[in-house]
Write a structure and sequence with these properties.
The chain has 238 residues and is of the alpha/beta class. It contains 5 helices and 8 strands.
Length: 238
Amino acid sequence: MIRFYKKITQLEDEKIKYSEWKRVDVEEKGVMKKRMKVVQCEATRQEYGTLIRKSLNEFRAHVYMVQTQYEQIRTLKENLPKYNVICQMDFAENYSCVHEDEVQSAYLDNASVTLYPVVLYYKVDGDSNLHHKSFVFASDEPGHNSSTEYAFIKDLIPVILQTPPGTKTVHYITDSPTSQYRNKYIFHLITLHGMLFDGITVSWHYIEAGHGKGPCDGVGGTAKRLAHMAVRQQKVVI
């Protein structure tokens, strides 16, 4: 980092031009909205060096957080107590309902399906190995919010109670967008979880944003690929 900063200060040009992703105001149909766009910027050598230092320090802290969180998740899996289940879940990108043979007007009018991949980790009596099961919930509800999340959990709990039988505690692992998981509605659900779902206690773990791909991404991607192949082979109509 020090060598890189020295190279910046040795540049001959006083002004440095660079591109940066920024959230900017964009007018869409008469309404101002925030959108991420690549913006051309200009700065002095000193300003640019300060910006690089700040960005690298933030990135270093982010990497440390991600590594620490994954170490804790790995430790939880290795030492998972009896009658405890780890539930890792996330919203996948919606599946677009395309057809193998469709009229031209249908191309821009495809419906979409909300996909919600879930991976459960658990141990069974007499076996120290960690087992897992994967599920994908499908819904025509387009909203990726806490209400949809609660509906999925209601359907998921009966499965958790049998995986393995006698489950007493669930450790939810999700990312942390405020629109989906890190909000007052989910916090309220955590406080009422035992009362709503047969006395099952709960812990909720939020993963650092931008943490890379996880098991739910693989499950969701596989589900969409299999559905796409079945449609292309004219085995199903979705």
